[in-house]
Amino acid sequence: MRILITNDDGINAPGLVTLAEIAAEIAGPQGEVWTVAPAFEQSGVGHCISYIHPTLIAELGPRRFATEGSPADCVLAAISDVMRDSPPDLVLSGVNRGNNSGENVMYSGTIGAAMEAALQGLPAIALSQYMGTQTAGLADPFEAARAHAPGLIRDLLQHGDWTSDADFRLFYNLNFPPCSAADVKGVRVGPQGRRRGTKFQVKADVAPNGRRFLWIMGGSQTAPATPGSDVEANMANYISLTPMRPDLTCHASLDGLKVLEQG
Q: Which reaction does it catalyse (predicted)?
């Protein structure tokens, strides 16, 4: 198996080291793991692509490349350039330092890479490690992902919906809870949730030279969330598994809007 790995924390991020180990275990001794990741951190860029300017790409070593672009750019670079003669069988994005459950999904470059892979017709999985007080005390804060991801990915490859002829191919979002590997209770399948009473906002600050700056700040990551959702599962020490697709249509509202059709 040929696996492409990428992330949004950057080519030197510790979570990417974890993902490389996970991917090597999945690929097996006869497989290949290719890395195409952002040269610098790209957290929060979502599904951004560098549409209006060129993207520099550099080979750092065997099957290891860095681009001065977004995670989605990295997937495009891999498919159209680096691995154009033999595209990957699977794309893994992460392991993100911090969760990408709940509303964080909409901002995540980790998710953006997996989404771009799905749009390109490739199987893709996003992996993120929820951080908290328990993980802060661990020698390896990614140990829950490191220990549980390989088996879960194998199960997902066997039992997931990987239909390739659908209009919008599915991809999968895995979030590992903020606890040690031993304290993970299991896996819960659930929808993307929403943390109540919290949202992204800006905080104004003035630099010593008098210039005014705005800092983007996220809300509480432990706020109560939608029952049965990915966030609720993570906060209860479960791995969350959420099937996703690059289609923002609210299908439940289509029929009700038919009265507005004209012509």
A: a ribonucleoside 5'-phosphate + H2O = a ribonucleoside + phosphate
Architecture of domain 2-193+225-246: 3-Layer(aba) Sandwich (3.40)
81 is in an annotated binding site: no
pTM exceeds 0.85, yes or no: yes
What are the distances in angstroms from CA 86 to CA 80, 163, 226, 262?
10, 20, 42, 48
Q: Is 101 exposed, middle or buried (0-12, 13-18, 19+ CB in 10 A)?
A: buried
Evaluate whether 242 touches 125 at the Cβ level (below 8 Å): no
Q: Is 140 annotated as a binding residue?
A: no
Nearest to 16, CA basis, from 148, 142, 178 = 142
- Residues 248-261, mean pLDDT to the nearest whole number: 95
Q: Which of 117, 170, 126 is nearest to 145 (CA)?
A: 126
- pLDDT at residue 263, as a whole number: 86
Ligand-binding annotation for 9, yes or no, is yes
Count other Cβ atoms within 10 Å, centred on residue 123.
Answer: 22
Interior angle at CA 216, CA 37 and CA 177, nearest 5: 60
Q: Is 73 annotated as a binding residue?
A: no
Domain ranges (residues) in the chain: 2-193+225-246
Strands (E) located in the chain? 2-6, 32-38, 57-61, 64-67, 90-97, 124-129, 171-176, 186-189, 201-206, 212-217, 238-244
Distances from the Cα of 37 to the Cα of 200, 201, 235, angstroms: 26, 28, 29
